UniProtKB/TrEMBL annotation:
The lineage of its organism: unclassified sequences, metagenomes, ecological metagenomes. Gene3D superfamilies: RHS repeat-associated core (2.180.10.10). InterPro entries: TEN-like_YD-shell (IPR056823), YD (IPR006530). This is Teneurin-like YD-shell domain-containing protein. Residues 6-84 form the Teneurin-like YD-shell domain. Keywords: Repeat. It comes from marine sediment metagenome. The keyword Phosphoprotein does not apply. The keyword Repeat applies. It holds the Pfam family TEN_YD-shell.
Length: 105
């Protein structure tokens, strides 16, 4: 299988073609990934906070996954497409030690 990658002027992936199927990538002015279009023309869009941290992804206009962060930029929770949230907890300031994962009911 031949994989062809095309990069834009900023050395970001613009398209990837594999087996005759092409994925296109579009970027926001700040360089973050805005949208990925797969070979079937399905769009996945990406949203970010003011610190360029990914806050949600959506397909066909529906939020699929969302993330929240603490003031240090550590991930606090991730909510999956079915609405199940996982909270990361017990992080010691500045060390990342003592992480735990738990489902939020």
């Amino acid at each position: 299988i031949i994989i062809n990658k095309v990069f834009d002027a900023y050395n970001r992936i613009d398209t990837i073609t594999q087996g005759g199927v092409t994925e296109d990538y579009d970027y926001n002015p700040d360089g973050t990934l805005a949208k990925k279009t797969d070979g079937e023309q399905n769009n996945t869009t990406y949203s970010y906070d003011a610190f360029k941290r990914l806050t949600n992804t959506s397909q066909a206009g529906q939020i699929n996954t969302s993330m929240t962060y603490d003031v240090q930029g550590n991930t606090l929770s991730v909510t999956d497409p079915e609405g199940h949230a996982t909270r990361k907890c017990g992080i010691q300031l500045g060390t990342g030690a003592g992480r735990c994962h738990r489902k939020i009911p």
